Structure formats: structure tokens, C-alpha cells
Amino acid sequence: MLFPQENTYRELKTLDGIWSFCLDEKDSGIKQGWYSGVRENCIPIAVPASFNDQTQEQKIRDYTGTYWYYTRFFVPQSWESRFVWLWFGAVHYSAKVWVNGKLVITNKGGSLPFWAEVSGKLKFGQENLIAVMGNNELSSESIPPGRVIIEDGVKKLSQHFDFFNYAGIHRPVKLFTTSKKFIEDITIKTDISGSAGIVNYEFLLKNNKGLKVNLKILDKKGQPVFIKTNISTKGAVRIENCKFWSPKNPYLYKFCLTVNDRQTTIDEYCLNIGVRTVKVSGNKLLLNGKPVYLTGCAKHEDFHIIGRGLNNALMVKDFNLLKWSNSNSFRTSHYPYADEIMDMADKLGFLVIDETPAVGMNEWGSDPVFDKILFNNKMLATHLTMLKELYRRDKNHPSVIIWSVTNEPEAEDKRARAYFKKVSAVMRQLDSTRPITAVVTSKPAYDNISQFFDIVSLNKYFGWYVLPGDLNKKTENALSAELDKYYNRFKKPIILTEFGADTVAGMHSDPPMMFSEEYQQEYYKLHGRVLDTKKYVIGEQVWNFADFMTKQETRRVMGNRKGIFTRDRQPKMAAHFLKQRWMKKI
Ligand code: BDP
Fold first, then answer.
1. Mean pLDDT confidence for 71-97
2. What is the DSSP-derived secondary structure letter of residue 534?
């Protein structure tokens, strides 16, 4: 299903707002029929947002387990003859949804949309009830994987990633209509031939008997550059003197299909498309045939009170800060971001490394039991499903230039080889038009997985976790040697996808000491000096865009402080330095 859209043939209602929320600590909700009515002890909670930071209850903040959300909504009588769809942008991690007491959706995966056609369950011209049962437990079969442990009768998560396991209805909830015959999917792949753009398209119609489809491609001013009636489900269009999509000119055309049933138009869908190519050639990453160098940040969906929830003002602010800092790219570390963010990246011309939620696939230190469940077949099956779901959702975004299939798995583990051979093969099968990568942090000689990918993406913390407090030649040499070793072994272009230093804003020290703003700035200057000597390095993305919440640990000061912006989006000294540095790089 395509992202919900409103037009003459599709109506749309948002169900965002204040819902009712209850914990189900004993996991007894289903047995007791909680799906058929709002529980008396439920409290108000905002959607979209994580529930964790909305109350004063520690139990709710730190909750691991099953939870329930409810809302009532009105469905107009006029929708009775239509298909009515219920759409969730994302619910972390798994969810079951009931409409008026009837089960309509079961979903797994906390960061991609899911939906169902619910017309048969609705009361038209009346009030209806949605009940959502969510659960934020992670297991050996989930992506990301995790493990639930019980301490003093309370469930806790053994997690292997460094961000708070925020949960709830994180993204918008929508109700929308289509006719019973409708456009279900569109796939666009673009190419360049001289000054012409080639738009290869394919679309899928639901209940397609006797339908005729017309195509119009419109330029930015709404002028048609291509019109054809009665097109087949697959074809190619040539746009002469095409304006290619790039960060400097993120030109979007509108690809509009209309569906006619005899003489009547019954559906329409307009998709923003950008014509561009991405290729790895030798040591270079080519956008529209020209080398491009990535500047920018790895991010998180994270903010005070709303946790991982989508907030439009925050999204706009973040894009403005990225622009301000002369970032031309970001990585959706460590899970797919909201549809709305991807649309904005298309419009504003950002180059996105789009990452699956496969983070924390390592057993570093804390939980030996976890080691046993790593890389099992069920984990692989979920991982492959996530690749497919991510591809299906983001395949048409010109901003998506690289797929990242994982972050920092245990790449030195022998089991990782076969696992990522399969993962890379499936990703390539899904999409041959974009380079693929796996973000690693292993030692170059023991890396079992980078061989399967087009770009080596490295997370390296010299001057922080390695050689802490040292911003001298020793660190500079160690970083330089590590990059060379990686390049010499794999002979592939490298992106430094993470490097950073925890920095408490307002803390100063001269000479620089760890955690001060001066240290972070000098740390980035040192990295800049090394990166500038490496011809095979095609990009740098600092860790992190902004400070973000993590679980409580001795090494975290109310969260991870490696942001170049604070959690409330104010620049630290290093942000000013990077802004100047990146001005010369883009
Ligand atoms: C990297 C992880 C990232 C962490 C970061 C850190 O990819 O998620 O937040 O380290 O420790 O290894 O700050």
C-alpha cells in the first residue's frame, strides 16, 4: 500500500490526539477481553509519541511488557461504499489492533508502517473504537534482538544498543478511503541518458479488471512534461532536458496515475519523484555521474517528553540545523525513520543512508546468554522481512542513496559470514540501483562481512573509547593506520559513519579534557586532518547530531552526550567548527 494521500478519490482523517493508555503488567488483557472496551483505569496519553516520558511514573518510563491504547472516532456515512483503511506509521515493537472488538492487524517491527482494510468492521455514521495492544519486549527473533529478564518479578530488557527503548504509538495514525479498485503500489527507477531522464515505472492495481490507467508527469510548476492514456503496468518514459535531483537542486517531478473504470475516474495517486543515479565507481560515490562527498550526522528520533514520536516542528528544526551545519547527508541510525522525514529529505535534497533496525547484534560483555541466540535462523528470517518492508516503503525516495543493512553486528564472529552473505544477496535482489553497506566497527583483519558490500562503513572512536584523552599524534596515527588497513584489505570506498566524543554543553577546559566542548572540537579537527589525506574516504558522518536518551549506565550522563547539538538543539562549539569545515566540502 502507498503512503496515505488525500485527493478527489481518496479521503483522509488523522486519528492523532489524546488516546487512553493502560499497562498490562500481567499480560492478561487478551484473556480478559480488554480489546472490546476502554479500561476504567486508563490514563490520557498523546499520540504520536512514546508513552515513557509523558507521566511522572517511573514504572511507565521504564516499562517492559504489554500495553494498551484506545481511541474513539467517527466514520461518516458517506464512506460506506468505499474501502476504508486504517494505517499506523509505527508502533514499537509489536502490535495487535482491534476495531470495534474485532482483530484487524497483527504486526511485528517497531519502525515501519502497517495497515489493514477495515470497512467490514466499521459502524458508519457512528462512533467506533480502536484498541491497540502493543509490546516493547525484544527477543532472539526480533530485529533489533534483545532478551527479557525478570528481576524482582519485573520484566527488564537486556538490550545491546545504546538508546532508550522508547515505546508506544510513535507515528501518525490515519484512516483513509480508496475505491474498491485502486492503485496499490508504484515502483520508480530512474536513469540518465545525456540530458534526458529515464523514468522506469511499474504499478500494481487491486481488482484491475476493465481498468484503464493514464499517466501524467508534471514539473515543479504543475506543467505536464509527459502525458499518455491507457498505459500498461510497466514502461519507461523519457524526459528531455530533464532537471536531475541533487542536494543543490532537489528537483521533484510529480508522477500521477489516474484510474478509469469505463468513463469514470475512480482513483488517482501522485508520487514525488526525483531523477538521479547513484553508483560506486572505483573509490568514488557518483551522484548523477559526479563524485559526491558526504558531510553530516548520524541521527536518532529522540526528544524530550515525546521520546521517539514524530513531531513536525522538531523535524523542521532538525532539517534546518542540518542545513545550517552544511550537512548534505544523514544516516537513519539505527532504524527506519518516519515517512514524513523521508519526504522532507527528498524535498530539501539530503542524501540518506537508510538503515534497517538491525542494531545490537553483538554480545559485548554484558550478557553471555545473548551470544547463544545471535545469528539464528529466525533472527535472519525477521531481518530479511525488515529488508523487504524497508525497501517497499522507501524504494521511491530519491534521497535514499545507500541501504545500510545493519549497525555494528558481531562481524568478527564466524557465524556472521553466512548470515550477511544472505542478507546482502537479498538486499541486492530487491534493489540493484543503489549501493549497499553494513556499518561495522571490527578490526580490519577479522571483519567477516564487509566483503559482501559496495561501501565500507566504519564506526571508529580513536581519541574516545580507544586512546581516551589523547588528541596527539598517537591517535592521529592510529586512526590513519586503521583506515588504511580497511582500504588495503577491501579496496572499497569508506565512509566514516560514526566518530564522536561525549560532551556536556557548557563544560570548558583549556587545555582540552574529555567531556569539555574544547575536547570535542579538537577531536573533530584531528579527524578532519586525517580524513583529508584519504582519497578513498567518500564521507564523514559524526556521532551524533544531537544528545539523546539511553538506558541508565555509569558511562552515560542522563543519556549519550556525543551530539554536536544539545538534546534541545543548541549548537556546541564543535558544531561551529564542523559548519566551517563542511562549507568547503559540499
Ligand atoms: C557506537 C554505536 C552507537 C553508540 C555509540 C556510542 O553504533 O549506537 O551510541 O557507539 O557509544 O558503537 O556513543
1. 98
2. -
